[in-house]
């Protein structure tokens, strides 16, 4: 269970003001990762699996000396930081991403469930305090204090680590004019949230520096470029190879974001009830592949369009229903593909084409990290199955949210109380 921090001290006005000032600095430092030139980071490719490319920052004394200017005195930077970055691209919009994180910010159980999917080694977490909540004027901005605990691999040798984190979230506009949303994480130290090493489960208080997520509208319509950055200092005596393993696995699971957004999109559209389904007895063949059913065939209802399909043409998807709660429902592959890829004027892109565009931007592995936004990958059609079957029942893809905010260029920190506006420059 998450601990109850008991301390005679509380966050004062000066400490709160310092944290808010630090949150803006951490966001600006995270945004620097998306600049093409002048970056202080040089990245080397570590792995390229499951549509996620993982890079590691090249260690150097010059790099370590520059890090001292990025952090507050409460959480000094390590002498030789170990930093990993994961890059992928998902189908969706910035509004969907913001709703994914902001929609759960007041529900600890839902927030924990989301972070557990992104980081399976998460043990527990809770919101310590909300310093700035989203407003009608600035719905994409928030600043919170979080507590998180993670297991360390191998768990038989190392105790779990916990972190007190300053989380800042806000939107920005790149120099190319594309909208983005950043989520930065930075450790902080305060007497109000003391170490829980003894006797609360034996957590070792670690530190996280200059980490978070960058979501930027891609040149491919209906897609988002995602960059996840993690720099962790687990403290105590831990070999460098175990540190690298634990930091890398923190970003290696980024591909699940695609499935999370996909499932949320399908849930938003709703599912059919039993009375809306086509009777199985009246169907002799699979509606998708047209293969005839035989004695041993299993007839399955698609809960999105109501037709009867075979087991090869269906997938189990995560669903949240009013009465059943979290469950799994059968959905045909055509409805899955329709909800997975957003429509564009040039045709839908398959995931392989999407990844080729990202790899091209990171092809020069011996030079500073490139921007997650750039030239668009070539657009291809979806599978022949979904292109051939254009029945209106499958045309259930949600339209991209349209609002006055999405029509205008909004800069990071436009709220006057946030200070100077920050625009990315190349």
Automatic annotation (TrEMBL):
Residues 280-340 form the FYVE-type domain. Residues 367-389 have a biased composition (Low complexity). Keywords: Metal-binding, Zinc, Zinc-finger. Residues 362-418 are annotated as: Disordered. Residues 12-241 form the START domain. Residues 399-410 have a biased composition (Polar residues). Pfam families: FYVE. This is FYVE-type domain-containing protein. It comes from Saprolegnia diclina (strain VS20).
């Amino acid at each position: 269970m998450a601990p109850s921090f008991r301390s005679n001290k509380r966050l004062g006005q000066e400490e709160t003001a310092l944290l808010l000032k630090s949150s803006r600095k951490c966001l600006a430092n995270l945004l620097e990762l998306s600049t093409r030139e002048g970056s202080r980071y040089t990245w080397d490719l570590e792995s390229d699996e499951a549509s996620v490319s993982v890079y590691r920052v090249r260690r150097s004394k010059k790099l370590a000396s520059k890090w001292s200017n990025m952090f507050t005195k409460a959480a000094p930077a390590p002498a030789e930081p170990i930093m990993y970055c994961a890059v992928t691209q998902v189908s969706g919009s910035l509004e969907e991403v913001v709703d994914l994180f902001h929609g759960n910010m007041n529900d600890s159980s839902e927030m924990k469930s989301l972070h557990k999917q992104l980081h399976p080694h998460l043990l527990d977490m809770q919101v310590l305090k909300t310093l700035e909540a989203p407003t009608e004027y600035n719905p994409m901005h928030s600043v919170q204090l979080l507590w998180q605990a993670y297991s360390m691999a191998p768990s038989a040798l190392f105790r779990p680590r916990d972190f007190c984190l300053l989380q800042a979230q806000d939107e920005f506009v790149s120099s190319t004019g594309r909208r983005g949303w950043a989520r930065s994480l930075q450790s902080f130290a305060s007497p109000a949230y003391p170490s829980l090493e003894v006797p609360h489960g034996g957590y070792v208080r670690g530190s996280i520096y200059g980490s978070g997520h960058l979501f930027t509208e891609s040149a491919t319509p209906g897609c988002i470029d995602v960059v996840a950055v993690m720099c962790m200092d687990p403290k105590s005596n831990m070999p460098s190879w175990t540190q690298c393993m634990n930091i890398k696995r923190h970003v290696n699971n980024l591909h699940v974001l695609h499935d999370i957004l996909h499932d949320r999109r399908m849930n938003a559209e709703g599912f059919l009830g039993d009375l809306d389904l086509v009777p199985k007895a009246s169907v002799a063949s699979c509606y998708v592949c047209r293969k005839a059913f035989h004695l041993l065939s299993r007839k399955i209802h698609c809960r999105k369009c109501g037709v009867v399909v075979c087991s090869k043409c269906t997938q189990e998807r995560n669903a949240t229903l009013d009465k059943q709660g979290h469950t799994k429902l059968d959905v045909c592959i055509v409805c899955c593909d329709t909800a997975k890829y957003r429509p564009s004027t040039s045709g839908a892109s398959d995931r392989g084409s999407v990844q080729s565009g990202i790899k091209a931007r990171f092809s020069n592995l011996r030079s500073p990290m490139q921007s997650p936004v750039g030239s668009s990958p070539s657009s291809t059609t979806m599978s022949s199955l979904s292109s051939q079957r254009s029945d209106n029942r499958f045309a259930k893809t949600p339209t991209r949210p349209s609002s006055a905010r999405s029509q205008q260029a909004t800069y990071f920190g436009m709220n006057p109380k946030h200070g100077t506006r920050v625009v990315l420059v190349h």
